[in-house]
Amino acid sequence: QVQLAESGGGLVQPGGSLRLSCDASGLTFNSRVPGWFRQAPGKEREFVATFHRSASTTYYSDSVKGRFTISRDNAKKTVYLQMNSLKPEDTAVYYCAARKTGTILSEIRNLLNYDYWGQGTQVTVSA
Q1: Which of 27, 31, 119 is nearest to 78 (CA)?
Q2: Which of 19, 47, 71, 89 is the most exposed place for a label (fewest CB within 10 A)?
Q3: Sign of CA dihedral 111, 123, 82, 1
Q4: Which region holds residue 48: left if phi is over 0, alpha if psi is between -120 and 50, else beta?
Q5: Is the distance from CB of 101 to CB of 115 less than 8 angstroms?
């Protein structure tokens, strides 16, 4: 059974860094591709980062590009989100999710194509 469990959230000052982890036990990386989403209070859940199905390329939302880095350790079945230069607007609950490998490229940012989700971890950026 696929289970996704996020950890690493917390309170950080603007300009600081955090690294989120997603324990993807049971996830078969040959058939599922992991990604990260976030949901701020009063806003819709939005795409943050993911991989191409080959894992050779990464994709980011414009709001985090250049500051966040998604990575993975296939042996540990763990996905990471390194977040640097954090801003107050990055405050949100961050979710790890997984989509089918066959999802077409134009749809990889659409949360409707992700069928496995973790419970989320809170990230608060505040002075």
Answers
A1: 27
A2: 89
A3: negative
A4: alpha
A5: no
Query: Could you give the C-alpha distances from 8 to 24, 107, 117, in angstroms and in order?
Result: 14, 28, 16
Tokens representing 14 are 């603007």
CA-to-CA distance for 13 and 55, rounded, in angstroms?
Answer: 32
Interatomic CA distance for residues 84 and 39, integer angstroms:
18
Q: What is the C-alpha to C-alpha distance for residues 79 and 84, in angstroms, rounded to an integer?
A: 16
Report residue 117 as tokens.
């989700």
Give the contacts of 44 (CB within 8 A, at least 6 positions apart).
none
Question: Residue 116 corresponds to which tokens in the numbers above?
Answer: 């496995």
Query: pLDDT tens digits, residue range 78-123?
Result: 999 999 999 999 999 999 999 999 999 999 999 999 999 999 999 9
Q: How far is CA 19 from CA 2, 51, 107, 108, in A?
A: 22, 17, 26, 22
Q: pLDDT tens for residues 13-30?
A: 999 999 999 999 888 888
Alpha helices in the chain (DSSP H): none
